[in-house]
Amino acid sequence: MIRRMPNMRRTLAALAPLLLAAGLAAPASAAPAAAWPPPATAYNHVETDDPVLFITIDDGWGTEDAAGAQRLLIERRIPASLFLLPDAYKRDPAYYRTLLANSPVRVENHTLTHRDMTTLSETEQRQEICGARDRQLAAFGDSPQLFRPAGGATYQWPYYNDATRTAAAACGARSVVTWTHDLTTWGEWSPEVPELKSGDIVLLHMGPQLEGDLRRVLAAADEANLTPARLRDYLRTAS
Length: 239
Known about the structure:
TIM Barrel, alpha/beta, 35% helix, six-stranded parallel β-sheet, single chain, three-stranded parallel β-sheet
């Protein structure tokens, strides 16, 4: 006598619980893979209970008129973060090498050509960030850990987007950093220094006004019982 084959649907239905228990059945839907590396975290202030603030200096043009600022950074051992442009430090690399050798400053990433990142594709943003990283490593032997997008009068705050954070991480930056207060003197106008608080990130710019701006910020920090600290050290553990 020839036996009939059992109904396939009934057989699978009977086996399904066993397959699930053994982990052999395919999940109904697979979770999307997480981006790797994860996008860099963005900061304009650091949450900390330590009585510290962070001094950052942008661009790098105008070193010929900033000898006083260089002396002050060295004498006061100010751990400033220098977000420099390659074409700027190329004009006077000795100025920055002297700072790196004699003070706790560190050079960080500020794009290759100061373009508005929000107008660029992710690929173009990687070219800007990775290109600046490679130039900095060649010039100073130290790879940047932080990235600051370029700002400008026609650029839109906060000067970055999700693609920027992804590109920054792909180029080795742990964090995208803007600022809490821009206290740069432009021409005859100096912004009023507010009451500084722990974790504030202060933006200044290289140039003839830098020494005076540093002294104003340091005086305000002393009044608030705050000490300048190195930004990359605090962003290693910030969440």
